[in-house]
Amino acid sequence: MIEQKSDQPRVAAYLLTPCNSTRASKFRERLAAFQRSQGLPLGIYEEQCEGRRSRPLRNRLVRRGQRGGFDLCVVLSLRHLAPTRSRVAQIVLRLKVPVVTPSGLRLDPNDRVLRWLARERAEVRRSIRREVAAKRKRGERVGEIPSGFRLAEDGVHVEPDPKVQAAMATARELAATGLSQRQIAEQLTEAGHRSRRGGPITHKQVGRWLARVGAT
Q1: How many angstroms separate the CA atoms of 91 and 164, rounded?
Q2: pTM surpassing 0.85?
Q3: At what angle do helices 203-215 and 162-176 cross, to 10 degrees?
Q4: Is residue 127 part of a domain?
Q5: In this predicted structure, what is the pLDDT of residue 216?
Q6: pLDDT for 167 beyond 50
């Protein structure tokens, strides 16, 4: 890493590299060339596309920025920070420092447009949560149908599935006798019970049923 002079801003760089090693090398070279052209240190937070959802290094970068660990953030593209403008705006606000790219873009956390975009994203998420809660209250389907239920004939609501409910009740009774989850699965399958996809009942399915009962 290049030693940073006292009159230089403290810099952190973030790079999201593709899985292809050749393209990843080109990404690194482009970012390093920009940093050298600006006289900036070359250390970076780098992670691959597989971490696109969790982004642990990006999150670490944000936490460091929130602690005042650097004065400027360098990225090859804003898409490396997040896929949408509103999400980028949120991250820049959390970083609390300007973000620059080799293309000449500069986002400042004090920018009113960024704050507006971040508030818009927050409001959209609140609206989605309210709608999901309302659907659940009305008994409508939200995401994956939970075990023991099925989609009603109207294609909107969910209702108890008698066959699965019976299998779950039998699983609880057999578990109380001391049988293992694998033994319970075998007995349920022999009794004619099937999974949602039509296959045999597995010990993992039995485990989820019992865990769900325990949680309630």
Answers
A1: 44
A2: no
A3: 90
A4: no
A5: 44
A6: yes
Contacts of 209 (CB under 8 A, 6+ apart): 147, 148, 167, 168, 171, 172
Structure tokens at 69: 């660990």
Instruction: Say how far apart CA 33 and CA 10 lie, in whole Å.
Output: 18
Domain count, the chain: 2
One-letter amino acid at 150 equals R
pLDDT digits (tens, 9 = 90+) for 117-138: 767 766 666 776 777 777 777 7
Residue 4 lies in a domain: no
- Alpha-carbon gap, residue 102 to 58, rounded angstroms: 19
The rounded distance, in Å, linking the Cα atoms of 6 and 23 is 34
Output the furthest CA–CA distance in the chain (Å, rounded). Answer: 77
Strand segments (E) across the chain: 11-17, 44-48, 72-75, 99-100, 106-107, 149-151, 158-160
Tokens of 177: 């006798």
Token pair, residue 74, equals 């360098």
